[in-house]
User: Fold these one by one.
Assistant:
Number 1:
Amino acid sequence: MDPAVLMAGWVLALPAIGWAFWRLNKTIDERSVPLIALLAAGLFVAQMLNFPVGGGVSGHLIGAALAVILVGLPAGMVVMTTVLVIQALLFGDGGITALGLNLLNMAVIAPLVAYAIMAVFKGNKLAVPVSAWSAVFISSVICGLQLGLSYSISGGAYGIEMAIALPAMAGWHAIIGIGEGVITGGVVLFLGKVAPETLRMSQVRTDKEVVEHGA
Amino acid sequence: MRHYEIDRYSRTSTLFGFDPRVKLACVVSLVVVTALLRSLEAVVIVLAFSIILLLSSRVPLRHVWKGLAIALPFIIAPPIALFLTSGPIPALTMAFRILASVLILTAMVTTTPLFDVIKTLSWYRMPRLLISLIMFTYRFIFVLLDEMERMKMARIARGHTGRGSLLSREVFRTLSYTIGMIFVRSHKRAVNMYDALLSRGYTGEVRTGEWMKVKGRDAALAAIFFLVGSLSVLTQVGLINWTLLV
């Protein structure tokens, strides 16, 4: 990645994440700490399964939508931040300088997209899988753009050429997103049936839950 | 726990005794400098240093390799793409740059006990919420892995074979329900663990008796990192020309 792009990532990601922490600190309920940490642990395990896809990029499940649906937007962003910081600092996976961009893509953009779609399609049966798919797809397109931009800014020293990076990221993540969408939908449905208390604190409610809690 | 133990060699390594705050500052600054390097010679200096650092840390190479294997797709894939568009030298530079950063970070991570990293982070004024979430998340990763193991065993005991097409709905249903159930069970355990902490007076803050102290050898370590960083930067801007020296 080109240093300018890396810097831009940090500059854009930090205020948004700062907001999420500030917001969560104000509204957090002590009982929700284990749930938030457990989600982060789960997403960490899921993200360990990353696999290289064509064109020099690799893909993995993100889980941002699941986090947003279960614990709400600020907490979802905090969950993603925790996962990424652990990957970068405790396991040396993912890099320190690239952390800014990773945060921007996976801890800011992906949760925002998931949140927006959940808000727009409130009550729709397909809202959960669609928001999970879009979160994966849109953040991967943006990541592809960043790689392409790095390549053109640095004149070929960093990044990957746009014509390769964009289709490789977008194309594969469109497919990965389907898997993520179906799994997220299934998990949310299951939790709604078996353990509705885990869904209760979400700000964007699923239709299932609205029926069960009568609101 | 039979899982990958990140702390296994952290206390026996020669790099263990250094102050983790100094280590973290050194490693982060060198990685940032490395990210800015564009010339192959400059990157090679950092790479050589990272290899020497790892070898002198006395961490078994097999253990290093295990950690490296996770990051391998990131090291190999991008340079291949760059090779096709920009030619071999930029691709090699990129591969070495990524490898060097990963190795330096690995040297730091494997030689510092997890709790010291966390203490260091809080010394650097990271948000308290993030620190406690990192600690809980780390603990719960093993709860999850443990529950996953149990569910796997239970499934096998009931005759689950794991065969089935990725295109069938049943596979995704089984997968989602399994993930959901693991989540529910782990959540119960996580809440119990949290309650246990609360009942012992946990308020979100971790206090420890021993505290870190910067000593002479920490200054020496910082000086070495600084030397390597400036050598590579000087090479980058052309003030040192290695082809003339060799």
Number 2:
Amino acid sequence: MSGAPVEHGYTHEQICIPENLIYQRPGTLLEQEFHYCPGCGHSTAHKIFMEVVEEMGLEGEVIGVAPVGCSVFAYHYLNVDMQQAAHGRACAVATGIKRMLPDKIVFTYQGDGDLAAIGTAETIHAANRGENFLAIFINNGIYGMTSGQMAPTTLPGMVTTTSPFGRDTKTQGHPLKIGELLALLPGVAYVTRQAVDIPKNIRKAKKALQKALEYQKKGLGFCLVEIVSNCPSNWKMTPLESNKFVEEKMIPFYPLGDIKVPQEEKK
Amino acid sequence: MGEIKLMKGNEALSEAMIRAGCDAYFGYPITPQSEVLEYLAREATNRTGMVILQAESEVAAINMIYGAAGCGKRVMTTSSSPGISLMQEGLSYIASAELPCVLANVNRGGPGLGTIQPAQGDYNQAVKGGGHGDYQLLVLAPCSVQEMVDFVKLGFELAEKYRGPVMILTDGAIGQMMEKVELFDQMPRKTDVPDWATTGRKKGQDRTYITSLFIEPEVMEKVNLKLQAKYKQMRETEVRYQTLNLDDAEYIFTGYGLGARICMKAMEIGREKGYKIGMIRPITLFPFPVDLYASIAPKVKAILDVELNAGQMVQDVILSTMGKTRVEFYGRMGGIIPEPEEILEYFEKQIIGGAK
Amino acid sequence: MTEEIIFAGFGGQGVLSMGQMLAYAGMIENKEVCWMPSYGPEMRGGTANCITIISDKMISSPIISRFDTAVALNQPSVDKFESRVKPGGTIIYDSTNILTPPTRTDITIYAVPGSEEANNLKNLKVLNMIILGAFVQARKTVEPATVMKALTSVLPERYHHLLPINQKAFEVGMSHIHN
């Protein structure tokens, strides 16, 4: 479309000038189309986190870990140094990185299956050691990458391909509230639950991510930013319906807000 | 000449790690190699600032190795058989992502929880690749406490040269026994950062990423071809072995690590009895000294392979000798260590007695 | 010269450190040495033994089944290892503890009342040094002075007040052997 005249008579070049700029992709995101499904919260989460990294001037300081899940290709989009990790092992890999480079800013970006099922041990022990990095936890209550199986955070009664009659807590267990669980550990500095369904929540989530990086810079310990998200494709919903589901079903079960804040933040 | 000490194999290995300027050790206790973490916890950090971390599991430990190696650091872990099994997933990723690291397997008897006594049942796992996919570990098999020291240094050199995992395959006996060792002098910690390492994106440069995910088959095949080219180069240039008394040998005893040491004694007793026995001890199990066996095979009446397992390396000996000589096997399993006399007895009964 | 020795007794009798001390002394004298413990999951109270090999040349197997010398501190050790001593070899045993002594006629047998002497020295822990003294006097594998040197190096400094009693015990052990 570049250069082609549009109906109002202006060319692309005539419109795209600095004075007209109201929004642009942060330099910490590569010029690369997301492979995420339309309406998926991953794209928003990627974007706000990379904005935070850029605004804090940390693009040269950050090393991220993307394990297995829909975000396995995060390093295709995030313009910072990254390591791709085995399923569930992000917190162990991040421990290795942070212990070697304690002055760098380290984060993991994990889904619910990765952080709260196969990688529970690595998550809890890294948190308990007070490893000074940030775990970003995308909780959409389903396995997206493998197309719609039950996750540890799937809501009671929720239909997935492996809970076709709805999650039966008697036989399939209860949703794991890993944030509340981690908040009990002395090594954990900050646990918060946010969402990216509506602009208000997106702004709050961004603020939380920024706080977490500030805490890491201060060396306060393990931070978990949980982001309650959606999965329109595997929830079999339109993007709008899926955001409604987040608001009406997910958030009531996973209430938003800080679960644990650092001692020094408490008044 | 370096410092001379009387040391246990496991402690010598740990001391060598510190002296090699190793940046970090991540590990989990398991008999018979718990001395390693204990020794390092006591000695390392004060002396060189090396990072020592007791992980929550071997699974976590090998992934900490992945992360730390990905930062371009010199890192090592150790474990024993069941723990090494848990590390196989991580090793496959490390091989694919081309991260240099050294790990030691202080082999104990298996399968299962097995026994804490020495064994060599993990040869196939080490040499044929215990994890998924087409990859190889470069495998060094020490047979003395001295080699436990030397192979740590060599292991790091090879790991960094080939950008991949190197395994020191030893066993409980070599880990627990004490011998005289000459230690190399303290080396400085590594300061150069390889360009593939993730240490934060440099201004005006592309980001660096480490991955083992290559979703397009065409790309994945290229990665495989690159790995195979490395393994080919290893086969051509890194084969190491020790030979004894080959000049007049009519029979060859062969084995690796502890098995080789016992064979040497059996050879000595056999020579006193007048049998012309020589010895081959592979030091690199991968790459295997194929050519050596191939060239010796037509010149001898038989090869007796001795292992502390059901017969694993012997498969490689058979492949290497291509039917040009008779290959016999004697092994004990489950933590039982064969005695030199019983090896010779087997030799006399099966090979001398049964010779055509 | 190669001397292959087994030291055997109960866990806690200092069997492993006896063998280690001898290996250390051998190293000080520039010999090739190897010390191989038999290890099990139990920490103490079980049977314990170790093989020590001292040689002028490279040592082949650390695991051997025939010994030049067996040093036995309890009955099960005599019962187990008497038959494994090479013809012309040596057994040294604690005659206070061991009531059924070895009977072979093709080897040299030394009965050392180690526990009794330890009792006389009012320190049962020096039994191993008494027997080691007897071993060194009987076999001349290393110089007696080297063993004390080895002990001084191996023993952490906070235990150095125990050196004189160990020296004494070592000498008492030596005095029981008349070659």
